[in-house]
Write a structure and sequence with these properties.
By secondary structure, this protein is α+β, with helices and mostly antiparallel strands. The protein has helices at about 1-15, 20-30, 40-50, 70-80, 145-150, and strands at about 65, 80-90, 105-120, 125-130, 140-145, 155-160. It contains five helices and six strands, in the order αααβαββββαβ. It has a six-stranded antiparallel β-sheet.
Length: about 160
């Protein structure tokens, strides 16, 4: 969610500033009613950002759900996609150039900001901004193969900022 807000502030207000994801996550955990369980829902992080006055109240008609087949089109139309993944331990062992490893035990849900893809490069990839800090992956950004994306992507949300 923090990455989504950073994108919005940069694109629509010309403000390039990082937002601390920890308060958003903490509030989302209160909202979902499971403060000790790992992960939360995208809907809870949206509500948390509103509760913390990071965004104004959202018109729910401006939020659209995206399935895996629609992510590329959503990236073209909206710029970024707030995305939920079912991740594995390999995410914690990303290579220094950002590649996520599809290995290890399943860890559960995790939200990231999808921010690009390439079908021209070999190998093809999807790009995301993670919330685990700049030391993870390549400055906090990661890439994954289309096969890994298709295995682990759950759903995404886009926000029509013009609404």
């Amino acid at each position: 969610m923090a990455g989504w807000l950073e994108f919005y502030n940069w694109k629509y207000h010309g403000v390039a500033a990082q937002i601390d994801p920890d308060p958003i996550y903490a509030r989302a955990k209160q909202l979902d009613g499971e403060p000790t369980a790992a992960g939360t829902t995208l809907e809870c992080v949206l509500q948390a950002a509103q509760d913390l006055n990071l965004i104004s109240a959202l018109n729910t008609a401006s939020i659209r759900q995206v399935k895996a087949a629609g992510v590329q089109q959503a990236l073209h139309r909206y710029g970024v996609v707030l995305s939920a993944f079912s991740i594995t331990e390999g995410w914690g062992n990303a290579t220094p150039n950002g590649w996520l490893l599809n290995s290890g035990l399943a860890l559960g849900g995790h939200a990231v900001l999808m921010c690009g893809y390439s079908e021209i490069d070999t190998p093809s990839w999807y790009a995301l901004q993670n919330s685990w800090g700049e030391d993870q992956g390549w400055r906090g950004f990661n890439r994954m193969s289309p096969a890994m994306f298709n295995q682990q992507f759950d759903y995404g949300l886009v926000w029509d900022f013009r609404s």
